[in-house]
Sequence to fold (325 residues):
Amino acid sequence: MMDLDVQAWVKVAAFAGGGIAMGLGAVGAAIGEGYTAAQANLAVSRNPKISGDIFKNMLVGQAVAESASIFALVVAILLLFMDKGNPNMLKAAALFGAGISMGFGAIGSGVGSGFPGGQACLGLSRQPAISSKLTTNMLIGSAVCQTPAIFSMVVALMLLFMDFSNAPLHPTWAALVGAGLSTGLAAIGSGYGGGMAAGASCEGVARQPEAVGNITTIMLVGQAVAQTPSIFGLLVSFILMFKTFPESLQLQSAMALLSAGLCTGLGGIGPGVGNGMAAEGAVRWVARNVKHAADLMRTMLVGQAVSQSTAIYAMVVSLVLIFVL
Fold:
C-alpha cells in the first residue's frame, strides 16, 4: 500500500467528506420534492381549473425541501476548496466528520419537507379559497423540518473551522468522527417525523380552515418534541468536540468515543420518527374534532414522551461511554 503524508491524508478526508456530504445530501431533498410533485399531479387531476396555483405552490414547497441539499452543497464546496491550514491527522478526522454530519443530517429534513408541500397542493385542490392559509401553514411546517439539517450544518462548520491541533491524536480522532455521526444520524428521524406532523397539518387546514389556530399549535408542539432526539445528538456532539480526552493508544478508548456518537445518532432515528407519528395523528384528528383538542394534545404528548424514552436511553449509554469507561 502506498504511504501517504499528512497533507495527503487531509485531502483524502476532505474529498471523501465532500462526496459523502453532497451524495447523501441529495437523497432526502430529491425524495421530498418528488413526493410534492406527485401530490401536485393528483391535485391537478382533481381540480384542473386551478392548475396554475397548484403549480406555484408545488414549486414553493420544493424550494423549501431543497434547502437541506443546499446546506450539503455548501459544506461539500468548503471541504473541497477551503484552505486546510496546518495539516494534521486530527484535521483529517474533523473534515471527514463534517462530511458525515452534513450528509446524514440532510436526509430526514429533505424527505420531511416534502410532506407539507405535497399535502398543501392536495389541499389547495379541495379548498382554493384558502390558498394563503395553506401556503403559510406549509412554510411554517417545512421550516421547522429544516431544523435538524441546520443542527448538522452547525456541527459540520464547527468541525471545519475549529482548531483541534493541541489535542492528542489518540483518541481525539474518534471523538471528532463520533461528533459527526451523533448529530448527522439523529437528524434523520427528527427531520422525517417533523415532516409527518407538518403534512397532517396542511391536510387538516384543508378539511377545517376555521380550526387553523388549533391545528398549527398542535403541529408546532408535536414538531418541537420530535426535534428532541436531534438535540440529544447535538449535545453529545458538543461534548465530543469540546471535552479534552487524555492521550491513550488503547483501541478501546477510541472505540468508546466513536461508539458514543453512533449510539446517540442511531438511537435518535426511531424516536424522531415515532414522535412524528404521534404528532401526525393528533394534528390530523384535531381538524375533525376541534372540541377535544386538549385531549388530543395530552394523548400526543404522553405518547411522544414514551417514544422519546428510547432516545434518552441511548444518550445515557453514550454519556457512560464518554465519562465512565
